[in-house]
Amino acid sequence: MLPALAADSRFVVAAISLKEATIYEGGGGELRPVALADLPRGMENLFGGGPDARGEGQTRSDGTVRKPVTANAADAPANADAGSQKQVSNDEAIQYLKQIAACLDQYLGGSGVPLVVVADERLAGHFRRVCRYPVLVEPMITVPPDSLDPATLHSHAREVLRPRFDQARRDALDRVRQGVGGGGGTASTHPAEIVAAALQGRVETLLLRQGGACWGRWLPKEQTAILHHARHPGDEDLLDLAAAHTMVTGGRVFELDVSDMPPGQVMAALLRF
Fold first, then answer.
1. Rounded to an integer, what distance in angstroms lies between the CA atom of residue 47 and that of residue 273?
2. Which of 101, 163, 230, 260 is the most exposed place for a label (fewest CB within 10 A)?
3. Is 254 exposed, middle or buried (0-12, 13-18, 19+ CB in 10 A)?
4. What DSSP element (H or E) covers 255?
5. What would the pLDDT profile of 89-138 be if each residue is shown by its tens digit?
């Protein structure tokens, strides 16, 4: 199976520090950076920097002066960069996080895609209060993200998402079993029927046997799939084809162990209609 199709579901990771904010799309074996035009890149980008080299305060856009704050200040300042003397107040950090949250809310909309946040404890707490997106994954990953590469971020995200994905797999399997057992055309375990439904945008949930293959060809003129017991010249793996079209049309794809699949089947699907 293609690596990009081997995941349970799409998810988004927001790696947030005062130095930088980066958004990633997940759903395969890696994270892919997403460029969002309105996303503030960091506090330096938003406010134009902290105290200058002389230690003086910096003028805000409204004409007031942001002065260096001390560690015992009442509003508990946060360091913008662990390797510098630059500090920002909680109010400024919250303003920064509100912009990130608004940008993510616009990007994710009503998709229901899980949002995983990676930030230190202070920023995570502030972000939890300002975020209005309903599928914010808990617990947040409360480690500073600047020193983590995408592979490590992906590993952390998968760990916190595991219970959610495991439950989603169980729910999908139960629904497919009920559909197959109840008849009425709401589910199928026939590969040719499933491939045709996937290309027509009718697959809501697709279950694939882990390590399985289904060789054959799709005949677009006839709108039918030809299946072969072994790979023939010109064949493609119809599991990949069905998975790709299911995901493109907003369906969900799950890989299951052979013991969890309907007996003897390499694919099963819950159909929209």
1. 52
2. 230
3. buried
4. strand 252-256
5. 889 999 999 999 999 999 999 888 999 999 999 999 999 999 999 999 99
